[in-house]
Amino acid sequence: MKKLEGATPALGPYSAGVEYGDLIFVSGQIPTDPEGHLPEGIEAQARQSIMNVKAVLEAGGSDLRHVVKTTVFLKNMDDFAAVNEVYAQYFDGEVKPARSCVQAAKLPKDMPLEIEAIAVKIR
Known about the structure:
six-stranded mixed sheet
């Protein structure tokens, strides 16, 4: 097992990602940029969370095309359509990752969303 770093540091006693065999497990990525700033608007926030997932994947030798499963946590399910529009821009292959999307009562640092992923390494 190998610990992976991402664009933003983990907020607690966990890794941003873990490589295990041919799999990469990305912890939930909140939408702050590497300097800790939260972009304005749910679309920009969804984009930033995906970019943070991408950074962890790249640290482990993978990319968004190799994601097999994601979970999207939303503070407000009313943001579902807007987040889907952004999500579809990044996960646009013929076979899209399996996904769950749930509304969470409260997310770390009171963020509006968080995205986690599982991917396979590029061979």
